[in-house]
């Protein structure tokens, strides 16, 4: 059974319908709202599977359905749906992971008073994300992109009575908006240059040869090709949404939201949007690759930003003590990997890593949610510990997620996708710095994940909450188990020996595998690095578990300055507060000064002049004109007294008189005319 | 029944709904909104006569409606500012109590 | 053709009537949004796209926000206090007045022969033509409306602004 591309809108429409149902049900309707949300998500998953089946019939084809949105004078604004393997794989992933997260939320949010709103917002989030995936128009994509931002604002600030959550929501919204401005400018420029925003339109779309050729052929400021400039502006949007350096600051703070939200934002939807955007407009991003005389290629910037982000995120994650913040910075780092892969020219590796990462990071976040739920909202790993015994399922699944993320070889999915990225970075002929950064990040990733697991699950319970933790109900553990299975199995879709997924994404029907020994040196190196990270982490944190909540971290003893800087997240927040915050305050003070002294002074002068005229006027009035007017005004006052009896002060009465008067006049006219 | 008649019926019924609302409710905001509805009803009339009138190409009806919408926006802004000022003085916004200027 | 119009009319009239009858002001403000959106749909149906967009921007977007703000700013501190129920006699008088007007209008409409029973094709009026009209024959009106909006904005700010309790000495 195939899904016609005209009906692709069903995928985002189902969760949207659930969001509307959720919004309209009264607060008591918990079952209805949650049931609608989960049913819609599962339904969207089924439709996505059909779409995937359709897309894989001919992976190279771009199935599009464009339609006119509205006429604007002589022009027509057109939107459309697009179905290709990229869209289809992403939809399946989002709906599958989303369904599991929704089910997990049933247990996690059970006691929350705003349970119904939560599912309404989750559905809205999912609908916006799916709309973004199926869009065949940069405009439609942008609309959904902003809806994702809105829904993330609502969800991060879900516990808005906590000031930190409200501030985090505001920060996420404003920070991503900075990037979105770039995206909007890029969109406008693109429309101005090509007169279309459709990706594929039978030869006239912006991602097709004709438009790309003309865009790459023109030169703009600084000697850049127009396509480079537009690509970089669009990349600004991706930097904001995907938490890339230097706009990554919102992502760790987004941990203030409920944990299922963190899983949804960091695994399946919001951060994936940036990577997906770059992969979608990849022909535009790479249109300048053939040019030799331009100073900069768009993808070079992408690669370096990705490398910086990957390394920086991994470094900071080493020094965090909040279980969710460690995972947040690991997300920042993994997104850096994906951007790096996009930048070095292998968007397929990026999407493969995006898909595997979605599963194991959702697993890790839900596992963290399970721990937090069991330990009565204790998130500090220094106060956890010893959970291996009481929480067996959570421990086992979390360990699988941790090994997938660290890249433990052969069995887990993370290693295959990360291998693809390292391989692509190795083959990049511009610079080897990204590869080196990525390799260092491999060590650090294995290290901090080992630390996280050792501190949380091994040793002895270091607080009352951790001591009394026990395993959660099946509604929370079953999604964990399913995700754990996927975190293992998904890797085999894209091993180097049989890269089925990569081939389908590239539009090939044949799968050309090659031996594992090809490029085996790099693989051996990365396996050794993973082993170093795991071993180091175990040697420092696992062998001698932390004894008490306040005992010193061995690394802090070894390098106090460095760890303090890392645990303060390298001071980005302070830097932004000191620069951009100050700048804003300074501008406000300047405006205040201008207002009070310059404009205020001018207005004051005018007022003085008016006062002077008034004095002259009054003198003339009192001495010259008064006598005659007194008599007249007495008469007027008399008539006013008569008429004022009709002024009852009842505005309704006046209006009623107007209406009745109209009726009477009309009756007179009609009856008079008829006579 | 011709479409023009339907449009006119719509506009007159909307006008009367707004009128009854403005007359029956004591909340000043709702009275203002009732007046807005009456304005909208007038706009519907303009559009209907533009659409089915003898000379639609001139676009007079459309232009008139645009101006009416602009004026209505100004009216809403000032009206609601007045509501807020009244609320500040008498701590409620019941229209029948705002009668200090009566004769 | 007529069916769409009737559906739109039912939407407009229904949401307007319910909005004016509700006790909860937030709900009625939201229903007014629906009503105005319905009116925009009517403009679209009649072929006046530009007016429809103006209606959406100004009513659904701006006026509804102002109304919501006014509702929130003037909410009684004690939300549980029941609002003074509107008196029955006033409602009856309102119904009589409104019914009278409705009777006159409907009677006039149904009693007047309209010779445009056959609807011609929808007239096309592009944005460019509207712009030409606005900047050409109606330029003076456009300027006056701009001035009116400015004055209304300033007036609204002045009316709604809080008077400072202490009288400042500097000239202003």
Put the structure in a nutshell:
The complex is a heterotrimer of chains A (675), B (103) and C (172). Chain A is mostly helical and 675 residues long. In chain A, 70% of the residues lie in helices and 3% in strands.
Number of strands of chain B: 0
Output the helix-strand order of chain B: HHH
CATH class of chain B, please? Mainly Alpha
Pattern of helices and strands of chain C: HHHHHH
Q: Architecture of chain B, according to CATH?
A: Orthogonal Bundle
User: What is the CA–CA distance across the termini of chain C?
Assistant: 61 Å
Helix content of chain B: over 70%
- Report the radius of gyration of chain C as a whole number of Å: 22 Å
- Strand segment tally of chain C: 0
Shape of chain B: elongated
Beta-strand content bin of chain B: under 5%
Average residue pLDDT of chain B = 86
Alpha carbon gyration radius of chain B = 17 Å
Largest sheet of chain C: none
Oligomer: heterotrimer
Mean pLDDT of chain C: 81
Describe this structure in words.
The complex is a heterotrimer of chains A (675), B (103) and C (172). Chain A is mainly α. Chain A is 70% helix and 3% strand. Chain A has 26 helices and four strands. Chain A has helices spanning 10-24, 30-57, 85-108, 115-134, 138-156, 163-194, 209-217, 226-241, 250-253, 259-268, 270-280, 282-285, 298-318, 323-343, 347-374, 392-406, 413-426, 433-457, 464-467, 474-489, 500-505, 520-542, 554-558, 560-567, 572-643, 651-674; strands at 63-72, 75-83, 494-495, 498-499. Chain A is globular and about 110 Å long. Chain B has a single domain, classed as Helix Hairpins, CATH 1.10.287.3510. Helix content of chain B is 76%, strand content 0%. Chain B has three helices and no strands. Chain B has helices spanning 3-24, 28-52, 60-90. Chain C is mainly α and 172 residues long. Chain C is 71% helix and 0% strand. Chain C has helices at residues 2-21, 25-46, 49-73, 88-111, 127-135, 139-160. Residues 77-83 and 168-172 of chain C have low confidence and may be disordered. The interface between B and C is large, with 69 and 82 residues.
């Amino acid at each position: 059974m195939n899904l016609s591309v005209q009906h692709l809108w069903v995928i985002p429409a189902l969760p949207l319908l659930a969001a509307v149902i959720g919004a309209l049900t009264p607060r008591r309707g918990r079952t209805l709202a949650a049931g609608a949300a989960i049913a819609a998500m599962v339904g969207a998953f089924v439709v996505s599977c059909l779409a995937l089946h359709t897309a894989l019939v001919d992976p190279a084809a771009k199935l599009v359905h464009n339609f006119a949105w509205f006429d604007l004078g002589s022009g027509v604004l057109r939107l459309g749906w697009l179905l290709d393997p990229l869209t289809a794989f992403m939809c399946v992933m989002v709906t599958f992971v989303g369904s599991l997260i929704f089910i997990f939320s049933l247990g996690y949010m059970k006691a929350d008073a705003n349970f119904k709103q939560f599912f309404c917002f989750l559905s809205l989030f999912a609908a916006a994300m799916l709309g973004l995936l199926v869009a065949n128009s940069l405009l439609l994509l942008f609309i959904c992109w902003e809806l994702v931002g809105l829904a993330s604002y609502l969800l991060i600030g879900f516990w808005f009575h906590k000031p930190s959550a409200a501030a985090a929501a505001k920060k996420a919204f404003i920070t991503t908006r900075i990037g979105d401005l770039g995206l909007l400018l890029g969109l406008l420029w693109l429309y101005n240059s090509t007169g279309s925003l459709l990706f594929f339109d039978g030869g006239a779309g912006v991602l097709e040869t004709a438009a790309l050729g003309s865009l790459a052929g023109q030169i703009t400021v600084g000697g850049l090709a127009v396509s480079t400039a537009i690509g970089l502006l669009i990349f600004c949007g991706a930097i904001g949404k995907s938490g890339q350096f230097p706009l990554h600051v919102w992502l760790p703070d987004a941990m203030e939201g409920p944990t299922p939200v963190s899983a949804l934002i960091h695994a399946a939807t919001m951060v994936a949007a940036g990577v997906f955007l770059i992969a979608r407009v990849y022909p535009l991003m790479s249109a300048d690759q053939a040019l030799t005389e331009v100073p900069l290629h768009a993808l070079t910037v992408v690669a370096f930003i990705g490398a910086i982000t990957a390394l920086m995120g991994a470094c900071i994650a080493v020094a965090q003590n909040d279980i969710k913040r460690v995972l947040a910075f690991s997300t920042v780092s993994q997104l850096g990997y994906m951007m790096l892969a996009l930048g070095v020219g292998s968007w397929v590796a990026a999407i493969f890593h995006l898909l595997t990462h979605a599963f194991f990071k959702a697993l890790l976040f839900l596992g963290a949610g399970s721990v937090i739920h069991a330990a009565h909202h204790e998130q500090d790993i220094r106060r956890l510990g010893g959970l291996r015994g009481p929480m067996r399922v959570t421990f086992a699944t979390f360990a699988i997620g941790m090994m997938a993320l660290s890249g433990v070889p052969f069995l887990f999915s993370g290693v295959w996708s990360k291998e693809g990225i390292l391989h692509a970075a190795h083959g990049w002929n511009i610079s080897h710095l990204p590869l080196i950064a990525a390799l260092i990040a491999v060590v650090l990733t294995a290290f901090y994940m080992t630390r996280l697991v050792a501190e949380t699950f091994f040793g002895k319970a270091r607080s009352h909450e951790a001591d009394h933790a026990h395993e959660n109900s099946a509604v929370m553990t079953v999604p964990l188990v399913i995700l754990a299975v996927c975190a293992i199995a998904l890797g085999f879709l894209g091993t180097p020996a049989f890269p089925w997924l990569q081939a389908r994404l590239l539009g090939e029907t044949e799968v050309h595998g090659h031996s594992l020994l090809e490029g085996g040196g790099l693989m051996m190196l990365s396996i050794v690095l993973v082993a170093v990270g795991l071993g180091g982490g175990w040697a420092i944190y696992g062998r001698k578990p932390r004894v008490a909540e306040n005992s010193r971290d061995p690394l802090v003893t070894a390098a106090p300055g460095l760890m303090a800087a890392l645990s303060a997240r390298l001071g980005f927040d302070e830097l932004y507060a000191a620069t951009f915050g100050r700048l804003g305050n300074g501008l406000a003070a300047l405006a205040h000064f201008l207002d009070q002294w310059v404009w205020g002074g001018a207005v004051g002068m005018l007022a003085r002049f008016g006062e002077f005229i008034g004095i002259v006027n009054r003198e003339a009035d009192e001495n010259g004109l008064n006598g005659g007017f007194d008599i007249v005004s007495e008469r007027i006052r008399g008539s006013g007294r008569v008429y004022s009896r009709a002024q009852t002060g009842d505005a309704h009465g006046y209006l009623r008189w107007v209406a009745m008067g109209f009726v009477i006049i009309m009756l007179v006219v009609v009856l008079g005319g008829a006579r | 029944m011709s479409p023009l008649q339907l449009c006119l019926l719509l506009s007159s019924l909307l006008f009367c709904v707004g009128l009854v609302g403005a007359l029956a409710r004591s909340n000043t905001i709702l009275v203002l909104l009732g007046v807005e509805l009456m304005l909208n009803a007038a706009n519907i009339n303009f559009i209907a006569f533009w659409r089915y009138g003898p000379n639609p190409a001139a676009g007079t009806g459309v232009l008139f409606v645009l101006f009416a919408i602009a004026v209505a926006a100004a009216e809403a802004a000032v009206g609601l500012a007045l509501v807020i000022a009244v609320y500040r003085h008498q701590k409620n916004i019941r229209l029948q109590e705002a009668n200090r200027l009566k004769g | 053709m007529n069916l769409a119009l009737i559906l739109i009319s039912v939407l407009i009239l229904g949401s307007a009537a319910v909005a004016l009858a509700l006790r909860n002001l937030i709900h009625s403000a939201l229903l007014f949004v629906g009503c105005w959106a319905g009116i925009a749909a009517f403009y679209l149906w009649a072929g006046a796209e530009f007016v429809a967009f103006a209606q959406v921007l100004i009513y659904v977007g701006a006026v509804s926000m102002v109304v919501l703000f006014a509702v929130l700013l003037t909410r009684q501190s004690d939300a549980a206090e029941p609002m003074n129920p509107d008196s029955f006699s006033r409602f009856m008088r309102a119904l009589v007045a409104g019914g009278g007007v409705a009777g006159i209008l409907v009677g006039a409409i149904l009693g007047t022969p309209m010779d445009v029973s056959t609807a011609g094709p929808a007239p096309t009026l592009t944005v460019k033509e509207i712009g030409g009209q606005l900047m050409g024959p109606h330029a003076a009106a456009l300027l006056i409306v701009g001035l009116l909006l400015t004055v209304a904005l300033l007036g609204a700010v002045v009316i709604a602004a809080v008077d400072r309790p202490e009288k400042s000495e500097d000239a202003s």
